[in-house]
Amino acid sequence: MNWKPPEEDDPMEVVGVLLPEGDLDETAAILVEEFVRAGYDDETLMELFRNPFYQATHWIYRARGEAYVRGLIERTRRQWSPR
Which of 11, 14, 18, 45 could form a disulfide with 40 if both were Cys (CB 3.0 to 4.6 A apart)? Predict the structure, then answer.
C-alpha cells in the first residue's frame, strides 16, 4: 500500500481539539495513558507537553504546570507497567 500525505481538505485527516467545557484533568489523564501505552518514554512525553506546537498537551502543561504533568505520567506508568 502506498502512502501519501493527506490533501489540505481531506475530511478523513485526524484532528484533535480541546473543548472549553471539557474536564481538563480527565483529558490530561486520557492523553497521558494513550502515550504511555504507545511506548513513549517520560522525556519524550514531557516534550509533547512543553512544546506549544502540540496545543492540547501544551494547554494542560500551562494550566497545571510541570509537576502536575510529571506526577500524572508517574501514576499512569505505575498503573500500566507490567507487574
Answer: 45
CA–CA separation, 39 and 18 (whole Å): 23
Phi then psi for residue 70, to 5 deg, are: -60, -40
Give CA separation, 82 vs 7, 37, 76, in Å.
Answer: 40, 11, 12
For residues 62 and 81, what is the distance between their CA atoms, to the nearest angstrom? Answer: 27
- Give the list of residues 6+ apart from residue 23 with CB closer than 8 angstroms, or none: none
pTM: 0.74
What is the rounded distance in angstroms from the CA atom of residue 45 to the CA atom of residue 25?
16
pLDDT single digits (tens) 24-72? 999 999 999 999 999 999 999 999 999 999 888 999 999 999 999 999 9
Question: φ and ψ at 5, to 5 degrees?
Answer: -65, 150
